[in-house]
Amino acid sequence: MKFINYLKSIDDVSIYPMVSLIIFSAFFLLAAWWAFKADRKMMEHISGLPLDDNDSLKNQ
Fold this sequence. Notes:
This protein has 60 residues and is mostly helical. It has helices at 3-8, 15-37, 40-48, 55-58. The termini are far apart.
């Protein structure tokens, strides 16, 4: 028996893609809202973290 046949046997299986789309959209919108509302100074600090060496952590 193929996997698709298992999905057909579940009642109201079509709701799962819609729920996952809503969860993804909500997370994406919250992340975008946070990115636009965040302080520029903090964003500049975060953007430079991958390039910083470990000595810069001691200076803070």
